[in-house]
Amino acid sequence: MEKLVVELCLGSSCFARGNSQTLQALEAYLKEEGLADRVALVGHLCLGNCAKGPNLRIGSETYSGLDTASVLALIRTQLLGGEERA
Fold first, then answer.
1. pTM of the entire structure?
2. How many CA atoms lie within 13 A of 29 on its CB side?
3. What Gene3D superfamilies would the database entry show (predicted)?
4. Which of 39, 41, 51, 74 has a CA between 20 and 30 Å from the CA of residue 59?
5. Domain carrying residue 49
6. What's the domain count of the chain?
7. Is residue 67 in some structural domain?
C-alpha cells in the first residue's frame, strides 16, 4: 500500500500560525491510532503561500488556513474514509 504523503510547511510564518502544534498532534494521532506506517510526514521551509498559512499539502492538493482539528479530520478522511476507528 502506498503511503499518504503529508507535507507540512515549517517556515517561520506557518510554524508560528499553528503548524508547530499541528505537527505534534499529527504525530501523536498517527502513533495512537497505529497509522504511522501509512503516512509519510514531510517538512518544508516554505510552500509558497505564507499569507494564507498555515499551509500543508496532501498529494497534489495544497490546503491553507487549517487549524489542528481540521488537519486531523482531513487526515482521518484520507486514511479511513472519514470513519472513526473503534
1. 0.86
2. 20
3. Glutaredoxin
4. 51
5. 4-80
6. 1
7. yes
3-state helix, strand and coil shares in percent for the chain, rounded to the nearest 5: 45, 25, 30
Asked whether residue 83 carries a pLDDT value surpassing 90, the answer given is no
Alpha-carbon distance of 19 to 60, in angstroms, equals 19
User: 55 in a domain, yes or no?
Assistant: yes
What pLDDT does residue 71 have? 96
**In-domain check, residue 43:** yes
CATH number of the domain that residue 30 is part of: 3.40.30.10
Main-chain phi, psi angles of 64, to 5 degrees: -130, 150
9 in Cβ contact with 42 (< 8 Å) = no
Does residue 73 carry a pLDDT above 50?
yes
Q: What is the helix (H) or strand (E) element at residue 70, kind and residue range?
A: helix 68-80
